[in-house]
Amino acid sequence: MHQQSMASSPKDFSGIPKIDFNLITTNGQQIIPKTFTGKYLMLAIGFTHCEHICPTIAANMAAVLRNIDIPTSGLFISVDNERDSPEITDQYAKGFHPDMVGASGDYQALAEAVENLNANFVVTKSSKSYVVQHTPDIYLVDPYGGFIEAFAFADGPNKIITALKVHYDQ
Questions:
Q1: Is residue 92 part of a domain?
Q2: Contact predicate 154/52, CB 8 Å
Q3: Which of these, 116, 143, 133, 118, lies nearest to 22 by C-alpha position?
Q4: What is the DSSP string of 71-101?
Q5: How many domains does the chain have?
Q6: In degrees rounded to 5, what are phi and psi of residue 93?
Q7: 14 within some domain
Q8: Fewer CB within 10 A of the end CB, N or C, for the chain?
Q9: In a domain, 11, yes or no
């Protein structure tokens, strides 16, 4: 059995996610927080072979984008970099909404991005199974790269829309 895991250690946990990543999307294009400067950003980790949770996360982000007039983007980061290339992940994200970007990276880049979010993921492989587990939250980021709030995947788009409007109106 082969297992890769990444989790924040309790001694490093500050409680506030740090929005910092260096990943790749289609055609080798680099994605960093400054890519989204000037827009709010919804960011989530997952994988494209997920049957229930990840499509719900992506659908929630897409519903927010369809129902808000505030400049906002979505970023779906695949932590399953063996099966999800940056191109596959970007196609997956754009299948939900054209203002969503899909990205991935090598294990180290993914581990750093996830650790910065105070999140975790585990990929467990054997000859009979392939399991990916991850934190299923949506992180809301302000136009300057500052963390606003995290939402559970089951919160739905209306809670995110309300938070966006409140923050935008401040």
A1: yes
A2: no
A3: 116
A4: -EEEEEEES-TTT--HHHHHHHHHHH-TTEE
A5: 1
A6: -60, -45
A7: no
A8: C
A9: no
- The DSSP bridge partners found for residue 149 are 140
**Position 13 in a domain:** no
Q: Which residues contact 109 (CB under 8 A, 6 or more apart)?
A: 21, 22, 23
Q: What is the pLDDT of residue 14?
A: 56
- Is residue 8 a contact partner of residue 48, using CB atoms and an 8 Å limit? no
Cα separation, 26 vs 104, whole angstroms: 10
Q: Which residue, among 147, 142, 163, has the nearest Cα to 36 in the 3D structure?
A: 142
Q: How many residues does the chain have?
A: 170
Statement: residue 72 has pLDDT above 70 = yes
Which residue range(s) make up the domain with 137?
2-6+19-168
- Record the tokens describing residue 67, joined without a space: 């129902």
Q: Give the domain CATH number at 126.
A: 3.40.30.10
